[in-house]
Amino acid sequence: MKLIKNTLLLFFMLSASLLMAQVKFEAKVSKQKLGVNERLRVDFEMNQDGDNFNPPDFANFVVVGGPNQSVSNSWINGVRSFKKVYSYFLAPKSRGTFTIGQASIVVDRETYKTIPIKIEVTAAVDIPKDPNNPDYIASENVHLVAEISKTNPYLNEAITVVYKLYVSPNVAVDNWNEIDSPRFNDFWSQNIDTQGQKVQNGTFKGEEYRFLVLRKVVLYPQKTGKLNIEPLSLDIALRVPTNRRDIFGSPLMTRASKVVSAGNQTINVKPLPEEGKPADFTGAVGDFNFEVSTSKKELDATESFQLKVGVRGNGNLKLFKLPKVTLPSSLEVYEPEHTENVRTNLAGMQGDISDNYTVVPQYKGKYPLPSISFSYFDLKTETYKRLNSEEIIIDVLEGPVNSANGNPATTSAISKQPVVLNNSQFAFIKTDTTFFNMANSRFFKTNLFWSLLLLPFLLIPVAIFIRNKKASREADVYGNRIRKADKLAKKYLGHAKKSLGKKEAFYIALEKALHNYLKAKLHIETSDLSKDKIQELLTEKQVELDVIKDFNSILQNCELARYTPIDIVTMQDDYEKAAKTISLIDKQAR
Questions:
Q1: Number of domains the chain is built from
Q2: What is the DSSP code string of 375-424?
Q3: pLDDT at 482 (0 to 100)
Q4: What start-end ranges are recorded for coiled-coil regions in this protein (predicted)?
């Protein structure tokens, strides 16, 4: 009987251990049907710790939070229970039926994948107006607004967009992250510096609010018709009041997060009128002054002067061309130097632009510089205006006469004079000489003579040594590949270092550096750069497991950076970790 009990106990223990050894990796969603204005939580849960977690691409959703990682260990009746969860918070982009793709994880060199999940996104649903719901309180007390100066501008007319975050005094904002920045594809755009902006008091929909100006942008539309201004979206962490009170009677606060968006804005861009449009119009829109000036009006031939064609005023100064000059053929004109002295503020571009020509007259005479015209569209009167410069006379005082333009009578009146010979025509030949002793200026057998004689023989061993070192270096094929890999890695790491603070550019450069280093180090192609293959080859090269894990974790960070907000401190850590890991692989690989 005792033997049977022991057998049964052993059987249950083995069964429990087998159940614990079975890997479970599954995806769970908070709901499979939601409105387009709701958020979806997706959890990827595993019962054993794994490596190389790869999430799906969430093509039809915007990742507004995550990945958040949580790990729990528990012991119940001597049995260990482990759970690790990666959580994402998603906002649907549009209505429809979509699929959450497969995520993958590697446990003990085996790859496990989740089952795809279908999600139905319906029209917007009414959010319950529960005064005790933190999400509802947050939605009612935080607003992001885009204020547009003009919604029906002309083509190339400046408009401004000011993004303001309004926060009710009832809530407190801890921090926020931009999750979607607008791209002004159909506009010339210029951001205005908003550093040092202070929180101000104001009203929103008739109620008292605090607000902060987050961004100011000046836009010049480059197309006509209806143009879309994409929204700015923020993920805000804040504290909202609850219906509970502390011992002093003050309401207790609870944490909440809220995604706010300024919403899509549409402007209708009017084309410039065709009626009255000058033939030489090049797209200038605004209020301008036109000037043509020269640095000199009197000079000699082959001297140069500067001809300046300039426009000053308020308008799209960087978006049109200045008129070209046409000068007489006797004036040699060089390509102009274009200069811009333009500042941009909420009123648009202001300042001046100019083309500076260098002109060199070739012949004596007076040369008129004809009047030059400049046309622009005046926004105040909504009409075209033309400005003309005054004619300028350039007087070349001294120099050769251009026979093609000269007076033939004057030219023919000049007679040839006979050449008169005289007896002193060879007077320039010197007949008296002065001699001096060369004995004191000998070069033969001096120190300089022997040095120049022996120097080639002394350089022969040096040349042989340098040639042997070069031949040895060229014969070291493997060493050359390592040096090439180091040089390439440093090159891309240099690009990554220059891109610190720009998430996407930084992680693309970092990933290129790691891949190109491995291609040269392990002699593999890009198509073979899987995580399993990398781990296998580095293990064969006797690289330590910790170093391999660090390398794979950096690659994973490069992949996850597309979905997660990253600050510059994390980028700096990843850069230093990448440099250290490449160095360790170089030292350990055999």
A1: 4
A2: EEEETTTTEEEEEEPPPEEEEE-SS---TTTS-HHHHHTPPPPPPPP-TT
A3: 60
A4: none
Summarize pLDDT for 26-46 with one digit per residue, the tens: 888 888 888 887 888 898 888
* DSSP-assigned states of every residue in 341-375: EEEEETTEEEEEEEEEEEEEE-SSEEEEE---EEE
Whether 122 and 35 have beta carbons less than 8 Å apart is answered as: yes
Spatial strand order of the sheet with 365-369 comes to 298-299, 392-396, 365-369
**pLDDT score, position 589:** 75
22-46 core/surface letters (b: 16 or more CB in 10 A; e: else): eeebebebeeeebbeebbbebbbbb
Nearest to 61 by CA among 19, 23, 30: 30
**The token pair that represents 327 in the structure block:** 């000068």
Give the tokens for residue 512. Answer: 């290129």
Q: Do both 260 and 314 map to the same domain?
A: no
Contacts of 459 (CB under 8 A, 6+ apart): none
pLDDT value, residue 218: 95
How confident is the model at residue 569, as a pLDDT?
73
Q: How far apart are CA 54 and CA 136, in angstroms?
A: 33
Type and span of the H or E element at 226: strand 225-229
pLDDT (0 to 100) of residue 582: 81
Whole-number Å distance between alpha carbons of 240 and 249: 16
Q: CA-CA distance, 324 to 355, in Å (whole number)? A: 9
* Under 8 Å between Cβ of 168 and 141: yes
**DSSP-assigned beta bridge partners for residue 256:** 238
pLDDT less than 70: residues of the chain: 1-21, 75-78, 126-132, 246-249, 403-443, 474-492, 523-529, 562-565
* Token pair in block for residue 332: 């040699």
Which of 70, 90, 122 is the C-terminal boundary of a domain? Answer: 122
Q: Give dist(CA 195, CA 213) in Å, integer.
A: 10
* CATH code of the domain containing 65: 2.60.40.740
Question: pTM here?
Answer: 0.50
Q: How far is CA 590 from CA 89, 361, 478, 534, in A?
A: 45, 73, 12, 15
Find out whether the peptide bond into 134 is cis, omega within 30 degrees of 0. Answer: no
Phi and psi torsions of 569, nearest 5°: -65, -45
What b/e string do you get for 290-325 counting C-beta neighbours within 10 Å, with b at 16 or more?
bbbebeeeebebeeebebbbbbebebbbebbebbeb
The tokens describing 282, both together, are: 């090049």
Q: What is the CATH number of the domain that holds 521?
A: 1.20.120.330
